[in-house]
What does this fold into?
Amino acid sequence: FGMKCIQYLGSFFILLHGMAIVINGHVATPLEILGLLLYLSSCVLFFSSVQANKRKPLKLAYSKSAPHSLTTTGPYKWIRHPFYSSYLLIF
It folds into this structure.
């Protein structure tokens, strides 16, 4: 139940944050455009990482169980930790 709440609320707040950026409508300077591109890149990387793990979900961080598989599709072909990379892009 907790994971489903995190998934749905996380997606909701990403969408809400993106809508706030678009509704503001003020994207004029090169730095604002760069920030928007980084934000969009982060969202694409995050959701493609989610998609790559749909069939075999990852274990929770710090869980006692051993990993059951290694994901090598999607962004995992190029980046070892795409979720963390997407967080760094958005910050």
Remarks:
- The first helix runs from residue 2 to 24.
- The helical segments are 2-24, 30-52, 82-90.
- The chain has a mean pLDDT of 84.
